[in-house]
From TrEMBL:
GO terms for molecular function: 2-polyprenyl-6-hydroxyphenol methylase activity; 3-demethylubiquinol 3-O-methyltransferase activity. This is Class I SAM-dependent methyltransferase. Its EC number is 2.1.1.222, 2.1.1.64. It is an enzyme of class 2 (transferase). CDD domains: AdoMet_MTases. Residues 129-176 form the Methyltransferase type domain. GO terms for biological process: methylation. Keywords: Methyltransferase, Transferase. It comes from Algoriphagus namhaensis. InterPro entries: Methyltransf_11, SAM-dependent_MTases_sf.
Length: 253
């Protein structure tokens, strides 16, 4: 009852004061905090398979609401690819994360295209268009950079999606291709006959996932033409609240 009487902006200011500290520094909004809020899924399969990027963890920024996944991509874009020093590039961003997309949209790149197959009801900004990763409405060799962050695990025909992403990427371009990845499984576990949401959640870690990728994920990317590189950033930026286990999966052309 008391909470309802306090304006939302004031509640946010109070919260930021409470969590202020010097343990973490958010590279996206600059907020310094003593903790991160908890997110992800607490499911046995995610622990059993040591799935990176999905299991329950302390990873959310109290200020901008960015996650460890958002910050990992942002730091890679800023520090390694240095895209903010050259705005004359074309970017394709699938299923854009709110905090990350907000920063990229405001930067003013030559072209910043955001798309998702299900835009209605997802509270996306107006600039996010309905788009199917299996049928990207752009010509070959169009984009300098593609961000596909935790999307392919939703797509039954993931190789067709990979082929489309490779098709629209320019020679010399880079694609960030993050997925929930099992650290202790060689082979990907997938089953397209499984339709019950509860059963899918128990087996794949989320009701709308169709697989948990194993280490053969990199073979799938290479099979459509991507040159795969892995970049681990945690040790370089230990205060940014990145996952100690997750690395950037970069596909080059």
């Amino acid at each position: 009852m008391v909470k309802a009487l306090i304006p939302q902006k004031l509640r946010q200011l109070i919260k930021l004061r409470v969590y202020s500290g010097n343990t973490y520094h958010c590279p996206m909004c600059g907020y310094d905090s003593k903790s991160l809020y908890s997110l992800g899924h607490d499911l046995p399969i995610l622990e059993e398979k040591e799935v990176v990027g999905s299991k329950r963890r302390d990873a959310g920024c109290h200020s901008c609401r960015s996650t460890d996944r958002d910050r990992l991509v942002f730091v890679f874009l800023k520090e390694k690819l240095q895209i903010f020093q050259n705005k004359e590039i074309k970017i394709l961003h699938f299923a854009p994360e709110k905090a990350l997309s907000k920063v990229l949209f405001k930067t003013g790149f030559e072209e910043y295209v955001c798309g998702d197959l299900f835009t209605e009801g997802y509270f996306y900004p107006d600039y996010v268009r309905n788009m199917n990763v299996l049928d990207i409405p752009f010509g070959e060799n169009y984009f300098d950079l593609i961000i596909c962050n935790h999307l392919l695990e939703h797509v039954p025909d993931d190789r067709a999606a990979m082929q489309e992403l490779f098709r629209v990427l320019k020679p010399g371009g880079k694609a960030i291709l993050q997925v929930p990845l099992s650290l202790n499984s060689e082979k990907t576990d997938e089953d397209f006959t499984l339709t019950n949401p509860s059963e899918k959640e128990q087996r794949f870690g989320q009701f709308d996932h169709v697989r948990i990728y194993g280490q053969d994920y990199f073979d799938r990317l290479e099979s459509v033409g991507f040159n795969v590189e892995k970049h681990h950033l945690y040790n370089e930026y230990p205060t940014y609240g990145l996952s100690i286990d997750e690395f950037i999966i970069q596909g080059g052309k």
